[in-house]
Here is the input.
Amino acid sequence: MNFDLRQAIINNIRGKTEEELRDMIVTSIEEHEEKTLPGLGVLFEIIWSNVDADTQEYMVETLSKHIN
Here is the structure.
């Protein structure tokens, strides 16, 4: 059986409104549930792939600042 988790997550969120996406992200972060991490990773990948280099640099700087 070949299961594409990335595509399943995308299919699950396809058609959601911006408010629904925001609620999903906020809830996932606030609940600290391990099962939501793959979904957040896919969302991050989509965002990363669709922003310019300056925004990517800002994201990396923000991560570095808050992790280190």
